[in-house]
């Protein structure tokens, strides 16, 4: 498995082809998810090299489908992974594992394996972080650009619903992020109550 070659391919594709209107799902988000996935994996005690390479590869590919589609980007990312990863020395079973992880980031999340749970948590790591507000704002701008949200009031109601229904899957994300996520939810509920 040539992780470096796969990384070069994916990162070049993302930097050249992502729409500048992807203010949330930009290249920076992919880098954030890769970092969060590796951090969660470390806390979860994942040490074997193959698992870490597969996890990092899935995190790199998880939003690659955005280069050609918005809805169904996970399936598209999986399709691109199946086309390109054999050329980087990945086997069929490894690619299936990677696609499982990519699909685990689809909302509503339904991860099954520990690696799928890790990437699902990494993809929404920001929900329980200090930088929640600016990242949330970047998602609002991206969705407004696509006429998927009409106003900040509408967006805050959507966020309350999303945060209320969301839960972290790994013990480490629950321990590290859940308290702050619940605090955000309380703050947003208080804002929405003023409308």
Write the H/E string, N to C. Answer: HHHHHHHHH
Distance separating the two termini: 53 Å
CATH topology: Hypothetical protein af1432
Strand proportion: under 5%
Count of separate structural domains: 1
Mean pLDDT: 97
Structural class designation: mainly alpha
- Unreliable stretches: none
Descriptive terms for the model:
single chain, 195 residues, mainly alpha, Hypothetical protein af1432, globular
Could you please describe the fold and organization of this structure?
By secondary structure, the chain is mainly α. It has a single domain, classed as Hypothetical protein af1432. Helix content is 66%, strand content 0%. It contains 9 helices and no strands. The longest helix is centred in the C-terminal third of the chain and has 22 residues. The radius of gyration is 17 Å and the shape is globular. The termini are far apart. The model has no long low-confidence stretch (mean pLDDT 97).
Outline the fold blueprint.
Elements: H1 3-17, H2 27-43, H3 49-61, H4 73-84, H5 92-103, H6 114-123, H7 132-145, H8 152-165, H9 171-192
Helix pairs in contact: 1-3, 2-3, 2-6, 3-5, 3-6, 4-5, 5-6, 8-9
